[in-house]
Design brief:
single chain, elongated, alpha/beta, 4 helices, three-stranded antiparallel beta sheet
């Protein structure tokens, strides 16, 4: 991905903090450079977060007539026309889920929007449902008081976001992975940068200060130049 006037060079960054950074391009040429600060602005929409539900494998094996059922992440959703005259369940209220619902409503025979919170559902001729509880070979059961089910569903599209992974920091041990970590229960090593695959800890507004006074900044938008200028100005003024 690039932006007008700001192309991104294609490179693989193998990062070891406090040590030289090794940069390798597509041709395998490497060079090492040392930095005091590292800005990671590569985004995190690369590793789909795809929850699994009890019974989904048996549901997938059962066909609707001659059709094949599917469960896909919204990352792989492309054209709503391919779901014409089908019954589709979209999971998730974020942008990808809302976009898929609004598009599929124009083509699908029946659409369901499964939401954890129903305070702000997407608009359109779809039926709002709570979270999926489980699958049976013939239906999808929702977690509501009356135990409602959707029969004859052809496809489930997961607008469930992405796992927050930064492979080159995980590989070098600079970033730990702990899916059970939450904001109120940090690990014993409070200075250890850790991801629970949804958030980074310990952070304040996505800023993390190392004990060596070297600064690591994580941002999920392309504002690296602005951050670099800000950091330079702050350190010059100290």
């Amino acid at each position: 991905m690039t932006y007008p006037g700001f192309p991104f060079p294609h490179a693989l960054y193998h990062v070891q903090l406090h040590r030289p950074v090794r940069i390798a391009d597509d041709d395998g040429h490497e060079k090492r450079r040392s930095f005091d600060r590292l800005v990671v602005a590569s985004g995190h929409s690369h590793y789909p977060h795809s929850p699994t539900f009890p019974g989904q494998d048996a549901w997938l094996r059962r066909r609707n007539g001659g059709g094949r059922r599917e469960i896909i992440h919204s990352m792989f959703y492309r054209e709503p026309q391919q779901y014409a005259n089908q019954m589709v369940v979209v999971v998730g209220l974020r942008a990808s889920g809302r976009d898929a619902v609004s598009q599929l409503a124009l083509y699908a025979r029946k659409g369901y929007h499964s939401l954890r919170s129903q305070n702000d559902p997407a608009h359109g001729p779809v039926e709002i449902k709570p979270e999926i509880a489980y699958f049976t070979p013939d239906a999808i059961a929702f977690a509501d008081s009356d135990g409602s089910r959707a029969h004859g569903v052809d496809a489930v599209i997961l607008g469930t976001g992405y796992d927050l992974r930064i492979p080159f920091l995980i590989a070098t041990g600079e970033l730990a992975v702990d899916p059970n970590l939450n904001a109120h229960h940090h690990s014993d090593d409070k200075l250890r940068l850790t991801t629970n695959l949804r958030h980074l800890f310990p952070l304040h507004q996505h800023l993390f200060f190392l004990s060596t006074s070297r600064l690591v900044i994580f941002t999920f938008t392309a504002i690296s130049d602005w951050i670099g200028l800000l950091v330079k100005t702050l350190f010059v003024s100290i």
